[in-house]
Design a protein that fits this description.
five-stranded antiparallel sheet; binds adenosine-5'-triphosphate; ABC_transporter-like_CS; 26% helix; binds magnesium ion; six-stranded mixed sheet; 31% strand; disordered C terminus; 8 helices; 299 residues; transport; ATP binding; OB fold (Dihydrolipoamide Acetyltransferase, E2P); P-loop_NTPase
Length: 299
Amino acid sequence: MTDPILKLEHLHKRFGRATPARDFSMTVERGEFFTMLGPSGSGKSTVLRMIAGLEYPDSGSIVIDGRDMTSVPPWDRHLGMVFQQYAIFPHLDVAGNVGYGLRRENLSREETASRISELLTLVGLEGYESRNVNQLSGGEQQRVAIARALAPRPAILLLDEPLSALDEKIRREMQDELRSIQQRTGTTFIYVTHDQEEALTMSDRVAVLNEGRYVQCDRPEQIFHRPRTPFVARFFRGCNLLSADLDAQGEEVRMTLAGESLMIDRRGGARTAAWWRCGARPFRSGPLLRRRGHRQVTG
Ligand SMILES: Nc1ncnc2c1ncn2[C@@H]1O[C@H](COP(=O)(O)OP(=O)(O)OP(=O)(O)O)[C@@H](O)[C@H]1O
Ligand SMILES: [Mg+2]
């Protein structure tokens, strides 16, 4: 097993009364599509900005590719970043924008042109070199931003809600394409979203954040089928949680819910209460989430 590409250790960050990172520790493996999912204000962007070096933690450490980068400035971290707003330069054409990502690479003119064309093919904009960026659609502009961020072959690409300004249909297409770009380049992606479906269908692992902590970090199937807390279960739409009483009787447990009782397998030791989850709706595609129905949520 190789060393992780990123290790966050006990990060703490406070802004006045907000604490977007509380003793936040997390590990991301090389080549993973890793997503941070959580409600607005849970600290997703702050954690991402600390990884990028756009904010510094009050305490804790950030190790990228084996090097302590906690106080290294952003331009020396060898990371790429894509934001919600298409941060492209309106005065440069498409090739100029993508080539901007190569300015520190010391490439010849031919090498630059060939790398730009390779990147444009990767993001589905083959032949767009001399196009004016102001005449591109939102989705196309975001592809230019992605190509530019990938140009210097960053160790990690950080993406903060990059698709949320796009309409539904384009967003779905771009989700599939982003996943494919990630797999074809083998780049580690750290992706921020508050869209549950997006997180579950695109990612290798998902960290669900709440109030500056992550409450569960797991594969999408586990997050959806085995939420570890009521918060995680409730975070998925179409899901109702009912409170139940448990009474352990030997190998079995009697569960009482809304005045009715039933016997269930003994799980989770001597608990006296549980949550019962009903009717969580499975998502669009992928190998996950095909099963419908009821699940017990521990905790
Ligand atoms: N520069 C800042 N100064 C003061 N408070 C900040 C700053 N950046 C973030 N915060 C606060 O930290 C908390 C977490 O913010 P953050 O932007 O990380 O959340 P988020 O999970 O990305 O939310 P959203 O989904 O809305 O983008 C919020 O309460 C926010 O107001
Ligand atoms: Mg944010």
